[in-house]
Structure formats: structure tokens, C-alpha cells
């Protein structure tokens, strides 16, 4: 990460590592916390509900998966940020639950940068069209954009998608008349390219914890 920042002429502190902890057991996360990693990302509400109480209290959590409306209340309770908000309907539900909880929820808006039918996320034009309405919702703060580009074994091939997200963020800032601090993009295979293109959050799992071999399940009481 530091080397990628240096190539891009950026301060190393301008990029935050979000450790993608889905499927990994609490033991692995405790080891990461002991090494100084405090920010973790989960993509399944039920797994997070079981896992978070078993992890060190100083760990911080962001939701990075597709959020269903019936899971929003739990997401608002468990996470300090919700990445991957991909519709006005979900944003409204987050706002409703945040008002009930008297809690302000930072969100990132997910963009389907390649227009893939198999992935969630806003089309760029739709995001820009709904941005002011999203921004007007109570107890929600739009902190930026996130995206998952098409998988490629060649990291350089992801660069156009990262560039597209960066350019869309600039357009969104123009609509809102305010800066958006975060671009969440880049994973284990392509995070260096993402950093070169402006990522402020990189989501890394396997490069930290190794290949996923099983799904975490809470031990029976």
C-alpha cells in the first residue's frame, strides 16, 4: 500500500486498510487486532451478529455486502458505516432505522461500473439523478462511492473501472457542492492499481488471512 501511494505521489496515511473478515473465525481477527488492524468488513448480517461479540471490543466494523431491507435495523446497530447502498429504497430504510436509533449512519453508494447484470449497484446516471434526494434523507451522510469491478487476473485491466469511479465521484461532488471523502475500491488482487487511481479504502481479505476454506459458524452454546 505504501509503495502504491509513493508511485501516485500520495501520503500513505491517505489510504485505509479494511480487512475483509467474512468467513474467517474470531481467532484470526483477534490476531489481526493484536497486530494493529482495527477496521473490519463483513458482508452477511447473521455472521456479523454472531462474530462481533466474540472479537475484541476495540475492533471497528463496516458492512460491505448487499443489504436487504429486513436486515437494515441490524446493520444500523452493528456497523459504523454501510458500504454498498445501491438504491433509494434501501437508503430510505437506513434513514428510518437511523432516526429510530438516534444515530447518524455514514454510507457509501455502490456503483455498477461495468454494467454487469450479475452485480448490484447504481448505474452512474441513476446515481447522479437521485443524489440530491439521497443526500436529503435524515440521519444519513454520504461519504463517497464504492465499486467491485469485473474480476480479472491482470490487475491493470481493472484500472479503467477505478478511473470511472473516481470521475463519477467528481461529478457527484459537483451535484452536491461538497467533497466526498471516500472511494472504496480495490481488493487483494488489484488494490495497488486502485490506490494509484485514488482509492481511500481498500478491501483486503485473502492477502491478509489466506484463502477461505470454510464458513464461520458460531459454536453451539
Explain what this protein looks like in three dimensions.
- The protein has 221 residues and is of the alpha/beta class.
- It has a single domain (16-208), classed as TIM Barrel (Alpha-Beta Barrel).
- 38% of the residues lie in helices and 17% in strands.
- The protein is built from 9 helices and 8 strands.
- The protein has helices at 2-8, 26-34, 45-51, 72-78, 88-101, 124-135, 159-176, 191-196, 206-209; strands spanning 16-20, 39-42, 60-63, 81-85, 105-110, 140-146, 182-184, 201-204.
- The chain has an 8-stranded parallel sheet.
- β1, α2 and β2 form a beta-alpha-beta unit.
- The protein is globular, with a radius of gyration of 17 Å.
Would you spell out the secondary-structure blueprint of this structure?
Layout: H1 2-8, E1 16-20, H2 26-34, E2 39-42, H3 45-51, E3 60-63, H4 72-78, E4 81-85, H5 88-101, E5 105-110, H6 124-135, E6 140-146, H7 159-176, E7 182-184, H8 191-196, E8 201-204, H9 206-209
Uncertain parts: none
Read across the widest sheet, the strand sequence of neighbours is: 7-6-5-4-3-2-1-8
Strand fraction equals 15-25%
Approximate helicity band: 25-40%
Provide the CATH architecture. Answer: Alpha-Beta Barrel
By DSSP (H or I, 4+ residues per run), the number of helices equals 9
Through-space gap between termini: 40 Å
Task: State mean pLDDT (0 to 100 scale).
Answer: 95
Amino acid at each position: 500500500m505504501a509503495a502504491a501511494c509513493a508511485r501516485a505521489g500520495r501520503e500513505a496515511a491517505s489510504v485505509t486498510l479494511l480487512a475483509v473478515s467474512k468467513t474467517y473465525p474470531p481467532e484470526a481477527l483477534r490476531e489481526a487486532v493484536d497486530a494493529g488492524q482495527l477496521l473490519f468488513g463483513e458482508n452477511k448480517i447473521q455472521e456479523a451478529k454472531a462474530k462481533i461479540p466474540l472479537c475484541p471490543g476495540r475492533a471497528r466494523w463496516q458492512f460491505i455486502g448487499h443489504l436487504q431491507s429486513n436486515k437494515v435495523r441490524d446493520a444500523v446497530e452493528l456497523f459504523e458505516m454501510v458500504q454498498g447502498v445501491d438504491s433509494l429504497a434501501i437508503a430510505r430504510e437506513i434513514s428510518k432505522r437511523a432516526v429510530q436509533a438516534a444515530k447518524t449512519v455514514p454510507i457509501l453508494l455502490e456503483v455498477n461500473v461495468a454494467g454487469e447484470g450479475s452485480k448490484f449497484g447504481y448505474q452512474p446516471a441513476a446515481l447522479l439523478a437521485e443524489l440530491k434526494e439521497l443526500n436529503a434523507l435524515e440521519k444519513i451522510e454520504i461519504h463517497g462511492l464504492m465499486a467491485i469491478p469485473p474480476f480479472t487476473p491482470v490487475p491493470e485491466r481493472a484500472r479503467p473501472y477505478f478511473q470511472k469511479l473516481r470521475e463519477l465521484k467528481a461529478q457527484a461532488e459537483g451535484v452536491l457542492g461538497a467533497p466526498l471523502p471516500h472511494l472504496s475500491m480495490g481488493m487483494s488482487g488489484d488494490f495497488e492499481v486502485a490506490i494509484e487511481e485514488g482509492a481511500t479504502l481498500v478491501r483486503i481479505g485473502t492477502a491478509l488471512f489466506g484463502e477461505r476454506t470454510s464458513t464461520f459458524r458460531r459454536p453451539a452454546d
